Amino acid sequence: MSEKKHTVSRRQFVVGTSGMLLAGALADGTPRAAETAAPSKLAIQGGEKAVKAAVAGKPRWGDPERAQLNEMLEQNSLFYWQGPQTKLLTERFQQFCPVKYVQTCSSGTAALHIAVGAAGVGVGDEVITSPVTDIGTVIGILYQQAVPVFADLGAGTCNLDVADVERRITPKTKAIIAVHLTGNPCDLDAFKALADRHKLVLIEDCAQAWGAKYRGRPIGSVGHIACFSLQNSKHITCGDGGVAASNDERFGKLLQRFGDKGGDRNKWGGHAVFATNYRMSEPQAAVAAAQLTRLEDIAAKRARLGNLLTEKIANIPGIVPHQVHPEDRAVYWFYFFRIRPEAFRCNRSEFTKALVAEGAGVSGGYIKVPLYGEPVFQQHAFFAGRWPVKEMGLTTMDFAQHKCPEAEAILASMIRVTITENMSEEYVLQTAEAIQKVARHYAA
Ligand SMILES: Cc1ncc(COP(=O)(O)O)c(C=O)c1O
């Protein structure tokens, strides 16, 4: 998406504040540091940087992981089935997400493929999901020879818009994958009601949402199946890994088969379903089990820092902060805010450059284009340049014609702010000051 001066789309940039509040926004009118700071020369023009605090370089692993790995080295088998590390990881996972069935696996992408397999998604079925996510959300759909149908997003959340999802339901729709983008919970009650009304399977993509809470309930515990990623950039990690989980007898019992070549490990053999090998080994499980002991601190800290940033930038004209429902806990895999193009004399790229010069950890956008804009979608070239379901007339989907206007407007106007548990409140306050300073400078 190219950026020209003042060309960021102005369409529908109305933030749907009904039923939503800006997380942590102050209501008493108390002046904030960011509001009262005297205007000063931008760092990009040779002025002093607004962000002077450093981010601590704390390691993400240490003694708990070492102890768990040492325990693992005493074992005779490093295979997951009935392995003590996998058992520990499963138990710890169930402590924070109370579901009966848990299948550890090799990645978040694998967890999502396991989920659509267990949901019975097959040839020509449709699965509605977000176009602004990691491609791993839809890889499993395509491998099941099913069709991802991209719905549009809510303006302030970057999460699926329930009404647009409903509009895209057809007799072929089998499931919805609700992506909790950046760790901000989707409106799960609304999605669950919609899924139940249309007899669809609701899959939660929690890859970016470890430790998030929807109306006080742990993320992953509301939909029919939940999927998590343990890839290196996530809140907790074992390098690469994933978890598929369910409380529903219909799908939960199938997770193990779809993660492990279709066989039921409780009864030797019996390949009643066809699936690939997505197993996680014991060394990975050992690290992931240890990492889970850190999760609550990481999630709580990120939630606090992200909400603090919202509180400090909520009243800056032209800035639309990350919208979080006041009863939810967003865990900010990253934070984003949008700029209203008409409010500034610069475009998103210039705004971002000025912030970087101030020392803020920001970048423009997230993924470059919505998933349907990627070449492999535009050319329907999923299987050695071909897409059998389209060639067989099982779908009329044409990704080259697909449009999600709000998703495109979000990607064109969002500025991404890095949030990590190693940041201090002072650092976040200075980031807010940088945003205030740049916004004032470029105010239209
Ligand atoms: C929202 C989302 N879904 C799915 C995935 C896929 O996870 P993995 O990289 O572990 O395969 C990711 C990873 O970035 C993600 O962010």
The small-molecule ligands in this entry are: pyridoxal-5'-phosphate
Strand content: 5-15%
Unreliable residue runs = 1-37
| Strand/helix succession | HHHEHEHEHEHEEEEEHHHEEHEHHHEH
Largest β sheet strand count, sense and barrel closure: 7 strands, mixed
Molecular structure report:
This protein is of the alpha/beta class and 444 residues long. It has a domain at 63-293: Aspartate Aminotransferase, domain 2 (3-Layer(aba) Sandwich), CATH 3.40.640. Helices cover 34% and strands 12% of the residues. The protein has 15 helices and 13 strands. It has helices at 33-36, 63-73, 84-96, 108-118, 136-143, 162-167, 188-197, 249-259, 282-292, 295-313, 348-357, 375-378, 388-391, 405-413, 425-442, and strands at 101-105, 126-129, 147-150, 173-179, 201-205, 213-214, 217-218, 225-229, 242-246, 319-320, 335-339, 362-364, 414-417. Strands 1-9-8-5-4-2-3 form a 7-stranded mixed β-sheet, with helices on both faces. Strands 10-11-13-12 form a 4-stranded antiparallel β-sheet. A two-stranded antiparallel ribbon has the order 6-7. The radius of gyration is 22 Å and the shape is globular. 51% of the residues are buried. The model is unreliable at 1-37 (pLDDT under 50). The site of pyridoxal-5'-phosphate has 14 residues, from helix 4 and helix 5. Pyridoxal-5'-phosphate binds next to helix 4 and helix 5.
